[in-house]
Amino acid sequence: MQASFALVSERWRIVSWNVNGIRAAERKGFLRWLRKDRPDVVALQETRIDSGSLPTRLRTPASYHGAWGFSCRPGYSGVATFSRRAPLATATGIGIPAFDAEGRVVETEFERFILYNVYFPKGSGTARDNSRVPFKLDFYDAFFAFALARRAAARKPLVVLGDFNTAHRDIDLANPRTNQKTSGFLPEERQAFEKHLDAGFVDTYRRRFPERVQYSWWSQRVGVRARNVGWRIDYVWVSKELWPRVVDAFIEDQVRGSDHCPVGIELEL
Q1: Which residue from 38, 54, 82, 234 has the least number of CB within 10 angstroms?
Q2: What is the pLDDT of residues 74-129, one digit of tens each?
């Protein structure tokens, strides 16, 4: 697929951040960060709020258009995408009730690309076992089948970003040897991750920085983040045809406010 771009270029700063509760993030300075960073698009995961509890200042922050996906379960999951440019269209879910009930996907379509903000499931259940791994892998398959079909129909490249809840390779977590049986680094999760990456996407940060060690999530146990014992589980993927337009990729690990930090890209379109 050949992407068509206008002669007049536009710079897009696109950021993804699992905020681990939008109300908690607000108390820790999320809106101040937004005013300072001024991304063109910011995609949030794990907002953990329902529509009825959402104040206007968070639903549509000043200078932004907002698109939200809510979980049917209170205080769980949820995604939101804010954009300075008005999207051509927005949609939630992928048409499968078992997945859509958890509020994990928001699509925003722009003139030159379609962006998917996704909060991929964890493989661990409430008992801290690996009981949700089958659900997680089924979600991976269903989401990427949906997104690639949408790409083909719309004839536009994709940006897929969010909390993937999987570290791809040893370089992507501090302790790979001791996490071989931990959800997030199980062989079957990593294989699924790689299968879908190879189906037509680029992991922008790792392509730009093949050897750099940087993480996007840390356990909330005392001292873990200070020692940088982390995982890189937040990603920005782009369709292969969009990769030449990526001029930078970054992990803002100095930004606090959640157990995750913002990750993102700069696009020149």
Answers
A1: 38
A2: 999 999 999 999 999 999 999 999 999 999 999 999 999 999 999 999 998 776 78
CB-based contact 77:94 (threshold 8 Å): no
55, 91 contact by CB (below 8 A): no
Return the HEC string of the chain: CCCCCCCCCCEEEEEEEECCCHHHHHHCCHHHHHHHHCCCEEEEECCCCCHHHCCHHHHCCCCCEEEEECCCCCCCCCEEEEECCCCCEEEECCCCHHHHCCCCEEEEECCCCEEEEEECCCCCCCCCCCCCHHHHHHHHHHHHHHHHHHHHHHCCCEEEEEECCCCCCHHHECCCHHHCCCCCCCHHHHHHHHHHHCCCEEEHHHHHCCCCCCCCEECCCCCCCCCCCEECCEEEEEEHHHHHHEEEEEECCCCCCCCECCEEEEEEC
**Below-70 pLDDT ranges, the chain:** 1-8, 127
Model pTM above 0.85: yes
Q: What does pLDDT average to over the chain?
A: 96
Terminus-to-terminus CA distance in the chain, angstroms?
16
The rounded distance, in Å, linking the Cα atoms of 73 and 108 is 23
Q: Where along the chain do its domains lie?
A: 11-268
Catalytically annotated residues: 163
**Does the domain spanning 11-268 belong to CATH 3.60.10.10?**
yes
Q: Which two tokens stand for residue 261?
A: 């930090």
pLDDT value at position 125? 79
